[in-house]
Amino acid sequence: MMSYTQELILIGILGIVSSIVGLKVSTGYHIVHNEQPQAHGPNFHEFRYIHGGDQFLVGNALPTAGADTSSAPQNPFLLVANPPPAPPMPGRVTCANPPAICTKSAYRSMDGSCNHLERAGLGVPNTKYGRLVTPKYADGISAPTRSVTGNELPSARLVSLVAFGEQDVPDPQFTLHNMQWGQIITHDMSMQAGGTQSKKHPTRCCTDDGRLVGLDIAHKTCFAIIVPPHDPAYSQVGTECLNFVRTLTDRDSNCQYTGGPAEQLTVVTSYMDLSLVYGNSIQQNSDIREFQGGRMIVEERNGAKWLPLSRNVTGDCDAIDPNEVCYRAGDVRVNQNPGLAILQTVLLREHNRIADALAALNPHFDDRTLFQEARKINIAQYQHISYYEWLPIFLGTENMLKNRLIFKAPGGSYVNDYDSNIDPSVLNEHATAAFRYFHSQIEGRLDLLSELRSVLGSLTLSDWFNRPGILEVGDNFDSLTRGHATQPEELTDINFDRQIKHFLFRRNMPFGSDLRSLDIQRNRDHGLASYNDMREFCGLRRAHSWEDFGDLISPKTLDALKSLYDSHEDVDLTVGGSLEAHVAGALAGPTFLCILTEQFYRTRVGDRFFFENGDKITGFTPDQLVELRKASMARLLCDNGNNIASMQPAAFKTISGSNPVVPCTNIPQVDLTKWIDQSAHPSTDHSILFGKK
Ligand code: HEM
Questions:
Q1: Where heme b is bound, by residue (predicted)?
Q2: Which residues contact 597 (CB under 8 A, 6 or more apart)?
Q3: 155, 473, 624, 672 — which has fewest CB within 10 A?
Q4: Are strands 44-51 and 6-16 parallel, antiparallel or unpaired?
Q5: pTM of the model
């Protein structure tokens, strides 16, 4: 085995960071990865960190194959070498209840049912993720993946520390809104069952001070992440484990299990239908809809319109004061971080902006027609922005054209590519591995910018998880929106910002969780096929030795992997896929690109309501399609800030000579007069009502 030494230098800076609103104690520190000459035997991971002016050098010896593993950290939840398969726990998940017969409607249902007219339940909440490659559970049924040697896989936290970095490398090309839109798409398409994804999980596998809960009392769904000794962050506070609760599967459901290995469930519609804005069921929607003028509920505070308030502030947010702002929306994750809450607000305001415009153009429209027409336009604009402005950055324009994800469709021409043979379900490999690679784009410092784009201040991400009230202070909403449109995202690479690597959801504690560790552990929880299996599925060469990964992974990174895993067959998909060199013009290597391309093909072609379809009942007129194709992220931000007057035309891209900030009035707008109901007003010219802003 080749030698490998990695040094992590961690500089602790515990200080008071006073933001412009005069808030918060913040913990920040810096880790740098350095190549060092071989100083110890193989599999020796050395962490050096500087804290409070003192420098510590500690080592973490990892077990090698055949070596004495008695001192290595073991996961007690996996201690039995060949455990009997866990019994199913039926009845823990709500059953999807699609209608038996579908009638063709002009509008999508709230829960996605009847999008497929024969298989009404495709893509609805509480159904299984799709899967490309057979799962790799340790017991063939549901137990988390183990090494092919039968050993436990290396601790997910150790892999996160050793295989991934945390350097701050700004992306010269793309803005923070580019990252943030990705999370919007994620929350629209999937949410694993049984978790909160941002709030403290009620099931505790680790105590609040990071000690393992005894196996005798731990819940069956516990699969805690074991922290290696001498962890550069957590050892400072004695944290031994990170809470992790397994996703519920078809085996936990009365109505999904049809035998075979466990399949995880997702609790939102899989379609790109803005379910995060409108909700995933009629009940959820009724709770956030005004039922007047086609509008969704907004609440006015300090002269602006905001998302309605949660009815359970201390439950839904990390609120210190029950009067703190905490939102209610179509998706429970709405409060998770400020950038997400901004875009949820923007998309909600856009709905009401469209509904009000349609009401003025068509005074005879009732609430339902206004609501459904505004929703349909909002979703179409969102799909257009996602497929034609956002996805090309990630998947590459040429790749998308070649694979028929986008088309050079002129003007108002239709693309009738709906295929009822395509299953629109979100793929487990996509949601649990490939799409999470873009967690690398997250930036831990959020700048507040003036209209002239000068920096007014900044926020530290971990101070504001689940505390969206910061958006309503002063001019913060607009300042952060401009900040996200100006500030570069983090480069899509092996580095994950320290704010999410040690401080995720820290809730005023010195440290929080580690998102990269959660991603890796989730890969094992879901029993995803290995990186090598997935390579083969994607038409790449199957590796027969470590060296065979060298076609896509650098020698230095391969050394890191060798020191962690017993065998090249063990490399988790989440890990291997994130370490590949990118395909030219895309933000992922070939394996993830293959998964992402497949997913977004299915999401388009499996959606009967996709906005480019020319169906007489569900589609738009050619005139309307011409307008929808003008929708842009820049215009969305211009129209739905509190008072944003200028923006660069390509808001996912950084400001430059070819993408300068211009007045909002210079950015094309969708002309809603094309939605005048001609049967009611055959010859009226209403364009005067909707002149450019
Ligand atoms: C500040 C920004 C973000 C934060 C704090 C965040 C945090 C999280 C957390 C805590 C989870 C659940 C982890 C688990 O328990 O397994 C998650 C899941 C996920 N995240 Fe993020 N995320 C962010 C941005 C993004 C972005 C930009 C993308 C993609 C472009 C993304 C894609 C995903 C996906 C696909 C999942 C799985 C969704 C599912 O349940 O099916 N996230 N994220």
A1: 439
A2: 395, 399, 400, 403, 405
A3: 473
A4: parallel
A5: 0.89
